[in-house]
Design a protein that fits this description.
heterodimer; A: alpha+beta; FAD/NAD(P)-binding domain; Flavocytochrome C3, Chain A, domain 1; 2 domains; 7-stranded mixed β-sheet; 4-stranded antiparallel β-sheet; 15 helices; 35% helix; B: alpha+beta; Alpha-Beta Plaits; two-stranded antiparallel ribbon; two-stranded antiparallel sheet
């Protein structure tokens, strides 16, 4: 029988040791607050920032010469997109500069080009710049060191399987130790929990290599993490809006702003209106604005789309190469070198990646708190804000400041030790572990992706009431099949299997929200509701579990 | 099986097993040395290659991941 083998107490439990989680640990530690960082893999190399980043969205009005309002407008028009409560955007932007100074003082090189910060990339011509260009190749190493100095206790190889709650407040979590084949379980009691679980990948079939579950621009181990918060009653928001990244085909990798080139049709015409020649200052913002451009070009036969860097100067190409190292793209560089792919001579095909839950997810207020007392969110799983690395850093910090204040008043729950959820979940895990002649987790992940792709696809394909109603029915069938048939004979496969069950919960929430939004908006296309409603644009849809069923409600967008 | 371990260089220190974000490497049941067990789950992030002090690791990029490219001159006949 599986059982809890140890109980640990802490002030703040941080779920996920990526950029947001480490920042939260550093911030709380500075205030003398005890933290445990529960990390699925190892903090040294986990999450989407594992090997680096090179663009950090930051508001420094003295350098940018723009107002806060202008900065927010620029963000909404570009890659970040319009799914923010801009009240949160303001809270975030006002803290970004101090984060950049902090990182630089810790040894992450935010000024790789001289004495000043340099703004570059992801920009429109003759418009303000928003991103500080930096060298983040060692960002995790530095943050891990700093968090350790500040007293964080790392539990590596300990995915959180479940959160615990009572009377509308979070009380702790169940962690699975996956270092040995036989899983071991730890109960952590905490005054507050910060969800820093990254974006959710593996919900949709890989857009380019459907047979490969792990060919993702973002960390493919970050799958379904936010579901444990949803299951204890935390509200989700913006789930119906597909977010799709884009990049090289078929080797999926983020970093399109690191490339310095012009997107072109096969006959050499530029696709977008922004640049005619490669420009390191702004990049080519075409796909940040026309979000389905690469998919559209394939669907209408005018593609494929290429990124052509050949007119960049040798200095710009060398600059781009250094940027790719800062961004953590060394595996791709090694591959290109081996295969003789040279941006000075070759145009590289770009494609749209599959939707992922990034800036769609858990709803927070200006303190980083969810509707569950003591439960905070940082970084990519926030549903009403999105800004990649800068969002991870800044919300990691803000949520930890507020969680630290919260825990000074909070007492650990005595009832958590006996929470009936623990026994119920361990009984399920026992079944999955010991089941004979069962089916591997991959079958259910692939089945889930089929359902999402057929019944809730992103633009240019459509959704409708009949498709979504059918999809939700089939999603229920899939969950029942998985619970009946899945076998996960060791800790590793159990971890993956539980990710799939989490993703089924989230997929159901996506379909439920998509069914509720009876209008067409950006990449959410309803064939039965083709118009974009003026009034609905200022309203967000929440999804929360009530009596085990996803329930939607509408609320006004909280605008500055 | 994307990561390849060069057995002549590997000293069995286990760093790759420790840091791989996907848990691609698992210990051999008898020797406890790292083995590529879940190669299909490789993200090709290069962490193992970067962190192996023995330089015993390399990535083999699977065929479906081929980077599609053309000679740029073919995009613009006038520039040939």
């Amino acid at each position: 029988m599986l059982n809890v083998q140890r109980i640990l107490d802490t002030d703040i439990l941080i779920v996920g040791g990526g950029i947001a989680g480490l920042m939260a640990a550093i911030c709380a530690g500075e205030q003398g607050i005890a933290t445990i960082v529960a990390e699925k893999a190892h903090v040294r190399r986990s999450g989407s920032g594992a090997t680096g980043n090179d663009h950090f969205l930051c508001f420094m009005p003295e350098i940018q010469k723009i107002t806060l309002k202008e900065m927010i407008n620029e963000m909404m028009a570009g890659q970040v997109g319009p799914w923010h409560d801009t009240l949160l955007t303001k809270v975030f932007l006002e803290r970004t500069a101090e984060m950049v100074h902090r990182w630089h003082s810790w040894g992450i090189n935010m000024k790789p080009f001289g004495p000043d910060y340099v703004y570059m990339g992801h920009a429109f011509p003759d418009r303000p710049r928003m991103y500080v260009k930096y060298d983040g190749h060692n960002q995790k190493e530095i943050l891990v060191k700093k968090a350790k100095e500040n007293g964080a206790l790392f539990l590596n190889h300990h995915p959180v399987t479940d959160l615990l709650a009572e009377d509308g407040r979070v009380t702790g979590a169940l962690l699975m130790d996956v270092r040995e084949d036989e899983p071991r379980f730890t109960l952590v009691r905490a005054g507050a929990v910060i969800m820093a679980t990254g974006c959710s990948t593996r919900l949709y079939p890989n857009s380019m290599t459907p047979a490969m579950l792990f060919n993702s621009g973002f960390c493919p181990s970050c799958a379904g993490g936010m579901a444990s918060a949803y299951r204890i009653g935390a509200r989700l928001v913006n789930m119906e809006h597909p977010y799709t990244h884009a990049g090289t085909r078929y080797f999926a990798r983020c970093g399109k702003a690191t490339w310095i080139g012009v997107y072109k049709y096969p006959d050499g015409r530029p696709i977008g209106p922004f640049v005619r020649r490669p420009d390191r200052e702004i990049g080519d913002n075409t796909s940040d604005v026309w979000k389905s451009v690469f998919a559209d070009l394939m669907a209408n036969g005018t593609g494929p789309a290429y990124l052509d860097c050949t007119e960049a100067s040798p200095e710009d190409l060398e600059f781009m190469r250094q940027g790719m190292i800062s961004e953590g793209l060394t595996s791709q560089l090694d591959y290109m070198d081996r295969e003789g792919i040279d941006p000075a001579r070759h145009a590289v095909e770009f494609g749209r990646y599959e939707p992922l839950l990034f800036g769609r997810g858990l709803e927070i207020d200006e303190t980083g708190s969810t509707n569950i007392k003591g439960l905070y969110v940082a970084g990519d799983p926030i549903g009403n804000f999105r800004s990649g690395i800068a969002g991870a850093v800044t919300w990691g910090w803000i949520s930890a400041e507020n969680a630290s204040r919260h825990v000074k008043e909070a007492e650990l729950s005595e009832r958590a030790r006996e929470d009936p959820l623990i026994a119920a979940r361990l009984a399920l895990y026992e079944k999955l572990l010991r089941r004979e002649n069962g089916a591997p987790w991959q079958e259910f992940n692939i089945a889930l992706q089929q359902l999402m792709n057929d019944y809730c696809p992103p633009a240019p394909r459509v959704r409708s009431e009949t498709l979504l109603r059918a999809g939700l029915k089939y999603m229920g069938d899939l969950r029942a099949h998985a619970l009946r048939d899945m076998a996960a004979p060791n800790s590793h496969t159990l971890m993956r299997g539980l990710e799939v069950l989490d993703l089924v919960d989230l997929g159901e929430a996506v379909m439920t929200a998509a069914r509720e939004r009876r209008e067409t908006r950006v990449q959410h296309i309803r064939s039965d509701c083709p118009f974009t409603s003026l009034s609905d644009g200022e309203k967000f849809i929440n999804v929360e579990l009530k009596n085990g069923r996803p329930v939607t409600s509408w609320r006004r967008r909280r605008m500055l | 099986m994307p990561p390849l371990i060069d057995q002549s260089r590997c000293i069995g220190c286990g760093v790759c097993m420790e840091i791989c974000p996907m848990q691609v490497f698992r210990p051999n049941k008898e020797t406890r040395r790292p083995e590529v067990t879940y190669g299909d789950e490789c993200w090709h992030c290069n962490s193992c290659v970067l962190d192996c002090r023995q330089q015993a690791l390399s990535l083999r990029i699977p065929a479906p991941f081929m980077m599609l490219h053309v000679n740029a001159s073919e995009l613009e006949p006038g520039r040939r």
